[in-house]
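Table 4 source record.
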Amino acid sequence: IATSTNHWAEHPQVGFDYLKSYGDYVDYPGIGFYPGIYPEDRRSLLGACFNTDHRIAERQAPMWCLEFQTGTFGAYAPKPGVLRMYAYLSLIYRSQVVCAWTWRSMLGGEEQYFFGLLDHDGTTSVKYEEFKKISEEFKILSHSGFPRESQPEVALAYSYESMVSSGNNPDFYKQNYIDQNLAVYNWFFERNIDLNIVDTRNIRGDYRLLVIAGQNLMDNDSAENIRAFVRDGGTIVMTGYSSIVNENNTVFSEPLPGRLSDLFGIEIRGFERREHHVPSVNEGGLAKSAGVASNGSINFHFQDCVEEFDTSYLELIKAKGAEILGSVDYQDQQVPVVTVNSYGAGSAVYIGLPAGSPVTGKVFDWLCEKHVFSSGLVTPKGICARNIGKEHILFVNTTGEAKTFEYQICGSSLLTGAECYDEIYLEPYGSDFFHIEKKG
């Protein structure tokens, strides 16, 4: 019997370590797909896709959206077209099943104001008509390569234990763990590049790039798997705040990044807060105030270019065999901030900044140019796109603005019948699905 479940593993208070055990009980990943009723809230939209990839993990089975946004607590409906856009976005993110939550608005209980496709009196709503259109279109596309399959070259590590342990120490871990991972995820999201979210204790797939963003907890199994991944030819990028404590949430007595300093060919010799720091516990019994003191912006040197940006946290890296790729101006000198070390057949890149800094994106750009991983389909900002098999391509406009852009394909829309040669038009929150006759 195939099993799916709509749990809430990501819940910050009552979640659980899904990646540790999902292989024992999940045949088809299940989720409540809830980006919210305002797709302009990009963090929520991004988070819904991140959660989908997290649930799929490395199962490589299609996602079942056992609950799918209709209304929300106290709000009747999103703008017209948003639900259809969400449905097509879920197809890009490997969905097979889209079940509206809920069918008829409930007459009682805690979700009686979570509005469904039918009103409380059983009358159909505008959302019903939108889901009817989704159903009709999905039927047309049912034999066109769905559910979408993907074999990502990129893996993003996720650690539930790191989320908990770093979240319980906000005086030190000032950059939220989830926000750091979403910042990395967003870079790939905007470039239409697939990735899998993996557990470093048990990496199952074959990847070319592994990204570890602010994973403070580094157990021995993870360290050995990471070491083997690089030794066998993979490339790893790890950012600041990573590998600071062991599996018991105890700080390493060895040089940081603990258990991996030789892999990266560096030692972290301290850090700087580039803004006024006041701990939550006022040591000495003296009340202290945050003030407004800040060291301001910092210059980043990378590949003969200099870029100025702000950061509140900077790790002081000492190269111990690693090559220095990038540096920052610090106390009248340039100090390493990006390093790369050869290890076995692979490479280990370290960034001494939180994952949300612009430096992370610069490093990904550099790795993509070096063909460490493949680039995605190039589209305007806000347009998600994927090839569906060898003969089809799906475009989804996640914004409330109409988009017209050049795209060199020769084909026709399976939804409208319109032909496409070198330009694509998508209405606000619009989607289109093309059969490709010839690529330009």
